[in-house]
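During the no-cost extension, the postdoctoral fellow (Dr. R.K.) reprocessed legacy sequence entries with the updated structure-token encoder. One reprocessed record is reproduced below for audit purposes.
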Amino acid sequence: MKRVLLILAALLVALPALAVQPDEMLKDPKLEARAREISRDLRCLVCQNQSIDDSDADLARDLRILLRQRLTAGDSDDQAKQFLVDRYGDYVLLRPPFKASTMALWLGPLLLLLAAVAAGVSVYRRRGAAPEKTAILSDEEKARLEKILKE
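Re-encoded structure tokens follow.
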């Protein structure tokens, strides 16, 4: 029995923690499901790497409430999301669209990777192109070195 309880406790700990509070939830399950689906794609502007659904920040709570208000008012999913984008910019989206203003977000990592590869190739080529330095001693220097080593 203890093992079963331990396994159940471990499974409960492994579940994702959602920050949505019971007082935020909509009474209509369909609207709540829509709100949850949309909020998974919206970035917490405080945490930056979490969705507003996962964040405990006050601003994330405000965004969740605002989203639910828009849905309750009759906005479609796209209209509700666009309202938040209009207010906070494309940065509020966890997956911003590919356009001129977000090009650096999409192409930046690729350009950094290409620059790192180019730098690595350059270093590798320079290392291979450098002549090996060999010490060439004259006969006199060799004799003197042998004399010193014998002493």
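Residues 103-129 form the longest helix (27 residues). Residues 13-17 have pLDDT under 50 and may be disordered. The remaining legacy entries will be reprocessed before the final report is submitted.
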